[in-house]
């Protein structure tokens, strides 16, 4: 089919590239002409493993193109995907500004009966609003249908997730629209779940809110483990053996970040508020997450008394590995808190440094390797479990740091082994080890 995809952020670009890979003709639209030029040459504006190879292959096959111009994209399009951002407004609700502009533009440019598919995460009811906005500007005798087709991909494994996801959700109020979008997606070979539009919109929010809840729950349990002498990894291993709980998404850490969980949980809380059905549980999930981001700094303060004048190496700055995304990364809160405590901060990330410079406090210095960061520092904090950070040996930390004290926000090492190697090792929901080794 001929498909137009509006918006080339994480969701739009991956969607466009994946649809071209399974055989459709896709034109992606973006308002940024420089970005369009680069994408036409097969250069991805985001760091996403495997994406550029697929981009290049499908550009070569003549199935994938990029443009700034709606006329060009809609000359042949039978289906239009909306994949623009829905950022968080100051009041926590989803900002639909970009969706509105795109829906109106689509209305002005569709040449034939078209199915408009919303990929962006939007509050329940938005697809009806999209329909109204598109219909406002339509040519005579042109009809549109709207479909909600939420995206569940994870950054850093977006390409893999698109081809190996758990399900494709299609929300439509017309059989024809549901069947057409199903046909488009059949080549992915994934389970397809069809429902009405409102339910599809809710599936997306409910899924993200549930996953965020799972993380905050496990973080609370890990803090209790800390206090009561249990080991969070043994606890989650035992919990995860219950198929009703599942063994995924039970990693305790320094709180969730990224472009989805923080924004979508707060949008759902606001949506619930507006519906007169306050979502108390989700509010608690969000509060726990904020507290968890500060945990390592609290542990460091407890260990050192004062952090004044200490230099701290922050290893890993992106909100998770395999992405250059700094949105809502715990490193932002941690760097701010450390600086407030009078510490100096030197950060290292294999990929996200340029983006980090835009959002971390100006006082943060940057290193080109874990070694450089640690050799400058008194002690270190592991914030993101990148492979190259996990590859640092305990012996290296011992050799590099002025004080061999490690605060591991991602539980990368074995606590007993760390102590054996002469490290005082503070991790999440596990006993601190090596306390007798280090003199302050
Ligand atoms: C998430 C959802 O997984 C995805 O389905 C949705 O489409 C978008 O939001 P993403 O934000 O890319 O994807 O990353 P994810 O891998 O889910 O991690 C989110 C955050 O949770 C990260 O900060 C990660 O470190 C944290 N996390 C994840 C944990 O702390 N523990 C876990 O067990 C899992």
Automatic annotation (TrEMBL):
Positions of NAD(+) binding: 30, 35, 86, 121, 155, 263, 327
Keywords of the record: NAD, Oxidoreductase
EC number(s) stated in the UniProt entry for this protein: 1.1.1.22
Enzyme class: oxidoreductase
Pfam families: UDPG_MGDP_dh, UDPG_MGDP_dh_C, UDPG_MGDP_dh_N
Domain UDP-glucose/GDP-mannose dehydrogenase C-terminal: 313-415
InterPro entries registered for this protein in UniProt: 6-PGluconate_DH-like_C_sf, NAD(P)-bd_dom_sf, UDP-Glc/GDP-Man, UDP-Glc/GDP-Man_DH_C, UDP-Glc/GDP-Man_DH_C_sf, UDP-Glc/GDP-Man_DH_dimer, UDP-Glc/GDP-Man_DH_N, UDPglc_DH_bac
Signal peptide (from-to): none
Binding annotation for substrate: 152-155, 204, 249-253, 257, 320
Keyword Kinase appears in the UniProt entry: no
Catalysed reactions, as listed in the record: UDP-alpha-D-glucose + 2 NAD(+) + H2O = UDP-alpha-D-glucuronate + 2 NADH + 3 H(+)
Active site positions: 260 (nucleophile)
Pathway of action: Nucleotide-sugar biosynthesis; UDP-alpha-D-glucuronate biosynthesis; UDP-alpha-D-glucuronate from UDP-alpha-D-glucose: step 1/1
Superkingdom of origin organism: Bacteria
GO terms, biological process: polysaccharide biosynthetic process; UDP-glucuronate biosynthetic process
GO molecular function, one term: NAD binding
Family that this chain belongs to: Belongs to the UDP-glucose/GDP-mannose dehydrogenase family.
PANTHER family per UniProt: UDP-GLUCOSE 6-DEHYDROGENASE TUAD, UDP-GLUCOSE 6-DEHYDROGENASE YWQF
Name of the protein in question: UDP-glucose 6-dehydrogenase
Organism for this UniProt entry: Texcoconibacillus texcoconensis
